[in-house]
């Protein structure tokens, strides 16, 4: 294969992967075809190959493989910011938001001039309930670039005020949210950051955490019931109003 043929094939390969990511689909046939193509990429560009395998593993929902491929890439090519950010996004794609947040923060610290990493870190930290920390990150962002405002900017201050009134810490909120996410991780489903919607009803002072899933109503009802039972069994405060709904 010539270099130009490789570039053309690699471009088409990434277009197919990006399409799968955008469609939230786990098409086993297409994933198998793409995994076969990765072997050609690995022989010419191992760095891109490891990242591709990590992303494909995330689309398969294989967390162990995600860690394996990205760790191999890190061992061979060091902790490059774009590699660490890709690792974070792959873990976020399967609902491992806490670890994804840590990795995206690392990517930002490795490359402080990359606003995109900071924006994604803010989103992931918000998704796991670290709103006091989100407030700190938003202040850093405001010094760098005020416009456009981060999507979390409007809600963050309101949620922080609610947390102060209810005496809830980042750690407590994250513990409850991670309990819900650990339950979702038991199902063969894709849950990406864009599936999560967080809001605060200021009038009723209620915190809403909505997760949109491409699942049947029966599965969603089963997850919701189990979540309620697990929160009660764990003795955690019922401070979050959960809404798990089908993707419309």
Structure characteristics:
248 residues; mainly alpha; GMP Synthetase, Chain A, domain 3; three-stranded mixed beta sheet; 11 helices; 68% helix; 8% strand
Q: What is the fold's blueprint, element by element?
A:
Blueprint: H1 3-23, H2 28-44, H3 46-60, H4 63-77, H5 81-93, H6 97-110, H7 115-127, H8 131-144, H9 153-166, H10 170-184, E1 196-201, E2 206-213, H11 217-233, E3 240-246
Parallel strand pairs: 2-3
Antiparallel strand pairs: 1-2
Helix pairs in contact: 1-2, 1-3, 2-3, 3-4, 3-5, 4-5, 5-6, 6-7, 7-8, 8-9, 10-11
Q: Supply the helix-strand structural class.
A: mainly alpha
- Amount of helix: 55-70%
General shape? globular
What is the residue-averaged pLDDT?
87
Largest β-sheet summary:
3 strands, mixed
* Amino- and carboxy-terminal Cα gap: 44 Å
In the CATH classification, which architecture of the domain at 128-248 applies?
2-Layer Sandwich
Spell out the helices and strands N to C: HHHHHHHHHHEEHE
Provide the β-strand percentage band.
5-15%
Outline the low-pLDDT stretches: none
- Counting DSSP H or I runs of 4 or more residues, the number of helices is 11
CATH topology of the domain at 128-248: GMP Synthetase, Chain A, domain 3
Q: If you compute it from the alpha carbons, what radius of gyration comes out, rounded to the nearest whole angstrom?
A: 19 Å
